[in-house]
Amino acid sequence: MAKILVAEDEEVLRMLVVDTLEDEGHELHEAADGREAVVSIMEHDYDLILLDYMMPLFTGLEVIEKVRNTPEKKDVKIMMVSAKSQQADKERVLKSGADYFIAKPYSPMELVQRIEEILNEEN
Protein backbone atom coordinates (compact mmCIF):
# COMPACT_ATOMS: atom_id res chain seq x y z
CA MET A 1 0.00 0.00 0.00
CA ALA A 2 0.95 3.66 0.13
CA LYS A 3 3.35 5.54 2.37
CA ILE A 4 1.50 8.59 3.72
CA LEU A 5 2.49 11.50 5.97
CA VAL A 6 -0.28 12.94 8.14
CA ALA A 7 0.68 16.47 9.22
CA GLU A 8 -1.98 17.69 11.66
CA ASP A 9 -1.50 19.64 14.89
CA GLU A 10 -4.74 18.44 16.52
CA GLU A 11 -3.63 15.19 18.15
CA VAL A 12 -7.07 13.56 18.34
CA LEU A 13 -7.79 14.25 14.68
CA ARG A 14 -4.32 13.08 13.66
CA MET A 15 -4.77 9.83 15.62
CA LEU A 16 -8.19 9.25 14.02
CA VAL A 17 -6.79 9.75 10.51
CA VAL A 18 -3.76 7.55 11.20
CA ASP A 19 -5.89 4.75 12.68
CA THR A 20 -8.35 4.93 9.79
CA LEU A 21 -5.66 4.79 7.12
CA GLU A 22 -3.67 2.07 8.91
CA ASP A 23 -6.84 -0.03 8.89
CA GLU A 24 -6.75 0.34 5.09
CA GLY A 25 -3.21 -1.09 5.05
CA HIS A 26 -1.21 2.09 4.47
CA GLU A 27 2.11 2.93 6.10
CA LEU A 28 1.63 6.12 8.11
CA HIS A 29 4.05 8.70 9.46
CA GLU A 30 2.94 11.60 11.65
CA ALA A 31 3.91 15.24 12.12
CA ALA A 32 2.41 17.51 14.79
CA ASP A 33 3.53 20.80 13.22
CA GLY A 34 4.84 22.24 9.99
CA ARG A 35 8.50 21.97 10.92
CA GLU A 36 8.15 18.26 11.76
CA ALA A 37 6.37 17.80 8.44
CA VAL A 38 9.19 19.39 6.44
CA VAL A 39 11.85 17.33 8.24
CA SER A 40 9.90 14.12 7.63
CA ILE A 41 9.28 14.96 3.97
CA MET A 42 12.98 15.60 3.38
CA GLU A 43 13.93 12.30 5.08
CA HIS A 44 11.34 10.02 3.43
CA ASP A 45 9.68 9.40 0.08
CA TYR A 46 5.90 9.58 0.41
CA ASP A 47 3.17 8.60 -2.01
CA LEU A 48 0.90 11.25 -0.45
CA ILE A 49 1.14 14.05 2.10
CA LEU A 50 -2.04 14.87 4.01
CA LEU A 51 -1.40 18.40 5.22
CA ASP A 52 -3.36 20.62 7.60
CA TYR A 53 -3.60 24.28 6.54
CA MET A 54 -3.21 25.93 9.94
CA MET A 55 -0.33 24.45 11.95
CA PRO A 56 2.29 25.92 14.27
CA LEU A 57 5.85 26.73 13.16
CA PHE A 58 5.06 26.42 9.42
CA THR A 59 1.59 26.67 7.92
CA GLY A 60 0.50 24.13 5.34
CA LEU A 61 1.15 26.74 2.64
CA GLU A 62 4.72 27.24 3.87
CA VAL A 63 5.28 23.46 3.89
CA ILE A 64 4.02 23.24 0.30
CA GLU A 65 6.37 26.03 -0.77
CA LYS A 66 9.36 24.24 0.76
CA VAL A 67 8.39 20.93 -0.86
CA ARG A 68 7.72 22.39 -4.29
CA ASN A 69 11.07 24.23 -4.19
CA THR A 70 12.99 21.00 -3.48
CA PRO A 71 13.63 19.35 -6.86
CA GLU A 72 13.65 15.74 -5.64
CA LYS A 73 10.42 16.24 -3.66
CA LYS A 74 8.47 18.60 -5.94
CA ASP A 75 6.29 15.91 -7.54
CA VAL A 76 4.88 14.32 -4.39
CA LYS A 77 1.07 14.41 -4.19
CA ILE A 78 -0.26 16.80 -1.53
CA MET A 79 -3.79 16.94 -0.15
CA MET A 80 -4.54 19.99 1.99
CA VAL A 81 -7.21 19.68 4.66
CA SER A 82 -8.68 22.82 6.14
CA ALA A 83 -11.59 24.32 8.01
CA LYS A 84 -10.99 27.35 5.77
CA SER A 85 -13.29 26.13 3.04
CA GLN A 86 -14.44 29.24 1.20
CA GLN A 87 -13.81 29.16 -2.55
CA ALA A 88 -11.06 31.80 -2.23
CA ASP A 89 -9.28 29.65 0.38
CA LYS A 90 -9.52 26.57 -1.82
CA GLU A 91 -8.16 28.48 -4.81
CA ARG A 92 -5.27 29.85 -2.70
CA VAL A 93 -4.40 26.31 -1.56
CA LEU A 94 -4.46 24.86 -5.07
CA LYS A 95 -2.53 27.81 -6.49
CA SER A 96 0.13 27.32 -3.80
CA GLY A 97 0.89 23.87 -5.18
CA ALA A 98 -1.48 21.47 -3.42
CA ASP A 99 -2.90 18.82 -5.72
CA TYR A 100 -6.12 18.26 -3.78
CA PHE A 101 -8.25 19.96 -1.14
CA ILE A 102 -10.70 18.53 1.36
CA ALA A 103 -12.72 20.66 3.76
CA LYS A 104 -13.05 19.97 7.48
CA PRO A 105 -15.11 18.46 8.87
CA TYR A 106 -15.00 15.35 6.72
CA SER A 107 -15.99 11.79 7.43
CA PRO A 108 -13.26 9.15 7.73
CA MET A 109 -14.85 7.22 4.87
CA GLU A 110 -14.85 10.31 2.65
CA LEU A 111 -11.14 10.72 3.36
CA VAL A 112 -10.41 7.05 2.60
CA GLN A 113 -12.36 7.28 -0.66
CA ARG A 114 -10.52 10.44 -1.78
CA ILE A 115 -7.14 8.95 -0.93
CA GLU A 116 -7.90 5.74 -2.82
CA GLU A 117 -8.94 7.82 -5.85
CA ILE A 118 -5.67 9.78 -5.68
CA LEU A 119 -3.51 6.70 -5.31
CA ASN A 120 -5.32 4.93 -8.14
CA GLU A 121 -4.69 7.90 -10.47
CA GLU A 122 -1.00 7.01 -10.43
CA ASN A 123 -1.57 3.36 -11.45
Automatic annotation (TrEMBL):
Keywords: Phosphoprotein. SMART domains: REC. One of its GO terms (biological process) is phosphorelay signal transduction system. It comes from the Bacteria. The keyword Phosphoprotein applies. PROSITE patterns: RESPONSE_REGULATORY. Pfam families: Response_reg. The keyword Phosphoprotein applies. Residues 3-119 form the Response regulatory domain. PANTHER family: RESPONSE REGULATORY DOMAIN-CONTAINING PROTEIN, STRESS RESPONSE REGULATOR PROTEIN 1. This is Response regulator receiver domain-containing protein. It comes from [Bacillus] enclensis. The lineage of its organism: Bacteria, Bacillati, Bacillota, Bacilli, Bacillales.
